[in-house]
From TrEMBL:
The species this protein was found in: Mytilus coruscus
GO terms for MF: ATP binding; transmembrane receptor protein tyrosine kinase activity
Designated name of the protein: Receptor protein-tyrosine kinase
Domain Fibronectin type-III residues, every copy: 569-663
InterPro entries assigned to the protein according to its UniProt record, in alphabetical order: FN3_dom, FN3_sf, Ig-like_fold, Kinase-like_dom_sf, Prot_kinase_dom, RTK, Ser-Thr/Tyr_kinase_cat_dom
Length: 1038
């Protein structure tokens, strides 16, 4: 008898067991060698003559087995006289089955050809058995029955905070009945549940059946090869071990690990390290009281963004049970993690890890003395318990001393980040020695200037700011207020002038005397009032700790100040052109403290009659027409000041006289006769030529050339009425080039001012010569918008502040809003950073970079967008030209794209972008390949038509996908080539119609170029308007 077959099961719900017995006998093979039948045997048959199954039910008792019941089952219809070669027998019973099969047969004898007898052969028995064992118990670990011998662990990860692969280990698992069959190791990435505030494995629901990132089976043996798995991204991972016995009972264990090999700690530029015991007025850098301690806070300054956004250190939720054997099965939600086999130990376990912005440990050290740039190596102390603030005791601190505070942050991966702040000490106020005023100076910073000389000193922290406050004597009503930041000097400069300069302990040096210009217009009196009240100048001197001292100076009545209640007429009137019936004049607008309401020209004719011409308040040119030839005229020119209700006319008009030209007469009779005779000779010559061409067969080509010439003349005639003066709306004025014109203005548009608390600086995007660009958030009522904040650099000076104010006023007063011009949202006054510009954020970045990026991914949709970009830029430039704004630097690098690829024009301003520190246009850096020929030496006199040339270059850049213009040519070669008539060829993606627009922009003579308004109308005809504001290019019209 062979060894029994054993089958294990954990199924308990059944009332019937079916055993199916199969047996067969190949009598042809078995008896193939037998001799042939003797003559006295009629027939012989062999087969299975009996089959039985003995079912034995055994049970466990006292550690052993005993036989509870035995049954013998017999397959029917079997005997020696009815042997079968194939047997199939169903036995419906249970437990342990002993199978027995007997083979035999019979032979029939004959005598003299008749049947004599039948003999049955002795049966030969074959036996086998099978056992069906039942096991309803899960595997168990030796820790459960205290049978461990060598620190066996149910399940562990060698490193639960790792930058490498997850390496599991397990040992000590047992199963008393069926034994351990296999282990299954699986890995899941955990996700955060906002409802339950913790991390968990993905849940099974009606629409989603999650699968693990990794799963591997390991057969049970004495020597186990443990699997490993390395995730492909940072995260918190759940590793689950299934221990499975031969009866398919399972027990599960779980371990949790953090995997991260890329993240680091960053610091916030918005949430800084702050010394809360220092003065807020000094931006928390100077402490003016409580010199016994320093309180410092760094809330939100350090953060691991990856860990914080992924909730790496939050608690791990209990495992949600899952899986069952179906409605008829014994097990429901059998995949579960018992508390004893969950992750309760190690660095990353189920419990939340204490942290502040995913920082688990802070160290600090405080060092007195001048701040250093290198962190100390010793003296660090842990902040316990974990906190983001600390107090530092002080001893023997004096005015002018400094104390540097270092903080080092650590995350769970072992990354660290160090940052510091310094606090200085000063309890004494500055000393003001003298204040002197010189009125109505000629070389001042403003059109109407007075100069104040302040002599002040502070030996501990230096004089940092001077504030002027103009108040009415007696009432002390404030008339105007102005703050001036004081620049520091280098020690080298200070050492050269020791009597006029001093240095403080922290190394900064200051001049004792400060010269500041004030704008008389700050003190202007409304038109309808008399300037007879007396003003006091309150001078407040602040040291770096923002402690202050005041001094007062009497200004007296303000009517003696230039510009106050003085209303000037235009000056420098000149004749631009004259004819027999008209004259074109230009002038310079008068400097003024008041708003102009308009200009009036009163023309006197020879017969002493007058004619009045109203002129726009901002105009600088005008045409007087309807005049008589060779006649002397004179006119008076007044400027009106005020508003709709109160108007004052300039006291002294500007006077000017001129004489019109002589009227041109027609040809004399002799001249007409000569022309007629010449025309007759020419006509005869043309007839002879035509006869000659006709006879030689060359008439038709010549006719075509003549027709083309006529068409050219006709087209020229059509364009000619669009004169230079009509196209060229945007011309350069003095105000456009003078940064001080706009910089001297006060920012008065309240609707454009934004509170500093509504702006949150997020991250630095770029850094220029004088400004830093930040990505920021603008909290407007209940909404939050992404914007761009343009701020001054840390080393800001009066000139940089002036330039920033000029840009703000320029955008506010002159530019306005249009969808293809970068939107100026408003301005912010920051006590520390100075004035800030808040601009529209364009998420798709610079047009040139976008074009270069799409070269390998062109499509019809993108090609359509290129045409729409060109049209949008044209619309934006037409808007700027209508506002008399000259760009001067139009190029693809000065176009931004928003999220829907709308172009936004930027890069223009109130002054030309000369080299830093240079006011001379001769030193201007000019992008030769983008500017018009007339601007290649200087853009000082650029205008709308020179911007049109640059627009044609931008079109070429767009359709060539960001290529540099004039490929193969160096910049120095371009002017000569253009003078000879060279023009770039059509880019591959450009069609004939748009290339024709390019060529129209590239006329060497500016007078032949179309203005943006004509270009816009021409392009508008090429597009069809869709619902909304979108335009689509009509290629079928070409």
């Amino acid at each position: 008898m062979t060894t029994p077959d054993i089958t294990w099961t954990n199924q308990g719900k059944f009332n019937k067991l079916e055993f199916h017995l199969k047996a067969s006998l190949d009598d042809t093979y078995v008896f193939s060698r037998n001799p042939s039948l003797p003559s006295y045997i009629i027939t012989v048959k062999f087969g299975i003559v009996s089959a039985t199954a003995t079912v034995i039910h055994t049970k466990l008792r006292n550690g052993g087995h005993y036989e509870a019941k035995r049954s013998i089952l017999e397959c029917p219809n079997l005997s020696s006289t009815t042997p079968k070669t194939d047997l199939s027998c169903d036995l419906k019973n249970q437990y342990k089955i002993h199978f027995s099969v007997s083979t035999g047969g019979y032979r029939q004898l004959k005598n003299d050809w008749s049947f004599y007898d039948q003999n049955n052969y002795n049966a030969i028995k074959t036996e086998n058995s099978m056992e069906l064992h039942f096991d309803y118990d899960d595997p168990f670990h030796c820790t459960e029955d205290y049978s461990c011998t060598s620190r066996e662990v149910p399940f562990i990860l060698r490193h639960d905070v790792t930058k490498g692969a997850l390496n599991p280990q397990w040992s000590g698992w047992k199963d008393k009945l069926s034994g351990i069959l296999r282990y299954v190791f699986e890995v899941w990435k955990m996700e955060y549940s906002y409802d339950h505030k913790g991390l968990r494995e993905p849940l099974i629901n009606r629409t989603f059946n999650p699968v693990p990132l990794f799963i591997q089976e390991v057969n049970a043996s004495d020597s186990i090869s443990f699997p490993t798995y390395e995730p492909n991204e940072p995260g918190v991972y759940s590793a689950i071990l299934e221990v499975n016995d031969k009866a398919n009972n399972s027990k599960y264990a779980r371990q949790v690990a953090i995997y991260d090999r890329t993240s680091n700690i960053s610091t916030s530029s918005d949430r800084l390290i702050i010394v809360t015991t220092a003065s807020e007025l000094s931006n928390f850098t100077w402490q003016t009281s409580h010199l016994s301690k320093i309180d410092v806070i760094w809330s939100g300054h350090f953060v691991n963004e990856v860990h914080e956004k992924g909730y790496f250190l939050e608690k791990i939720l209990d495992y949600v049970p899952r899986l069952d054997d179906g409605s008829e099965g014994r097990r429901h939600d059998y995949k579960k993690i018992l508390p004893g086999f969950d992750d309760n130990k190690g660095e990353r376990n189920k419990a939340a890890i204490p942290n502040i912005k995913s920082i688990i440990r802070f160290e600090t050290v405080g060092i007195p003395g001048i701040p250093m740039s290198v962190a100390p190596k010793t003296g660090w102390e842990d902040v316990t318990p974990l906190n983001d603030n600390k107090s530092f005791p002080l001893t023997d601190i004096r005015d002018g001393d400094s104390y540097q505070l270092w903080i080092r942050a650590h995350d769970i991966m072992g990354n660290s980040k160090v940052d510091s702040t310094a606090v200085h000490f000063d309890r004494s106020k500055p000393t003001v020695h003298s204040v002197k005023i010189k009125y109505n100076i000629d070389d001042g910073e403003y059109p109407f200037s007075s100069r104040v000389r302040v002599s002040a000193r502070d030996d501990h922290s230096g004089v940092r700011k001077v504030s002027f406050r103009f108040v009415v004597n007696g009432t002390l009503n404030e008339k105007a207020k102005k703050d001036f930041l004081i620049e520091t000097k280098s020690k080298e400069i200070c050492d050269r002038i020791p009597s006029d300069c001093y240095c403080v302990k922290m190394g900064e040096c200051f001049l004792i005397k400060t010269v500041l210009d004030i704008n008389n217009c700050w003190l202007k009196v409304p038109i309808h009032q008399v300037a007879n009240f007396v003003l006091l100048l309150e001078v407040t001197v602040y040291n770096s700790a923002m402690l202050s001292s005041k001094s007062y100076v009497t200004i007296g009545t303000v009517k003696h100040l230039q510009g106050i209640q003085q209303y000037y007429s235009p000056s420098n009137i000149t004749v631009v052109s004259r004819t027999s019936s008209s004259v074109s004049i230009k002038w310079i607008q008068a400097k003024t403290c008041y708003e102009r309401a308009g200009i009036v020209i009163i023309l006197y004719t020879p017969d002493n009659k007058t004619k009045e011409f109203p002129v726009d308040k901002d105009a600088t040119t005008f045409d007087l027409s309807g005049l008589s030839s060779l006649t002397s005229y004179r006119f008076l020119m007044y400027t009106k000041y005020g508003n709709d209700t109160i108007v004052v006319t300039s006291a002294s008009p500007a006077k000017f006289s001129f004489v019109t030209r002589k009227k041109e007469t027609g040809f004399p009779t002799s001249g007409i006769a000569g022309i007629a005779g010449g025309f007759t000779v020419l006509l005869i010559f043309v007839i002879i030529v035509l006869v000659f061409l006709g006879r030689t067969g060359r008439l038709q080509p010549a006719k075509q050339r003549v027709t083309a010439g006529i068409r050219t003349v006709r087209n020229t005639i059509r364009v000619r009425p669009t004169t230079n003066s009509f196209n060229n709306r945007a011309i350069v004025s003095k105000e456009d080039d003078d940064i001080y014109f706009y910089g001297g203005m006060e920012i008065k548009e309240n609707n454009m001012k934004i509170s500093r608390k509504d702006i949150s600086l997020e991250s630095e995007l770029a850094r220029g010569r004088f400004a830093v660009i930040f990505l920021a958030k603008y909290y407007n009522k209940s909404e939050c918008h992404e914007v761009v904040a343009k701020t001054l650099k840390d080393d800001q000076n009066a000139k940089a502040i002036m330039k920033m104010k000029a840009k703000i006023n320029f955008y506010t007063k002159k530019v306005g809003r249009q969808k293809n011009v970068l939107e100026f949202i408003g301005s912010v006054e920051d006590e520390v950073r100075g004035p800030m510009m808040i601009l529209e954020y364009c998420s798709k970045g610079v047009l040139k970079q976008f074009l270069e990026a799409i070269k390998s991914n062109m499509s019809i949709d993108i090609e359509e967008k290129l045409f729409r970009m060109v049209f949008g830029i044209c619309q934006g430039m037409d808007f700027l030209a209508s506002k008399q704004v000259v760009h001067r630097r139009l190029a693809a690098r000065n176009i931004l794209l928003n999220s829907i690829l709308e172009p936004k024009i930027t890069g223009f301003g109130p002054d030309p972008s000369y080299d830093e520190g240079e006011d001379n246009p001769g030193n201007e850096r000019i992008p030769i390949k983008w500017v018009a020929p007339e601007c290649m030496k200087s853009t000082q006199y650029a205008n709308e038509l020179s911007d049109v040339w640059s627009f044609g270059i931008v079109m070429w850049e767009i359709f060539s996908l960001g290529e540099t213009p004039y490929p193969g040519l160096q910049s120095r070669e371009v002017p000569g080539k253009l003078k000879k008539g060279y023009k770039m060829t059509k880019p591959e993606l450009c069609d004939d119609a748009f290339y024709a627009v390019m060529l129209k922009c590239w006329h060497y003579d500016p007078k032949k170029r179309s203005g943006f308004e004509q270009l816009k109308e021409q392009m508008n005809n090429m597009f069809t308007e869709a619902p909304g504001d979108d335009y689509y290019y009509r290629t079928n019209d070409l």
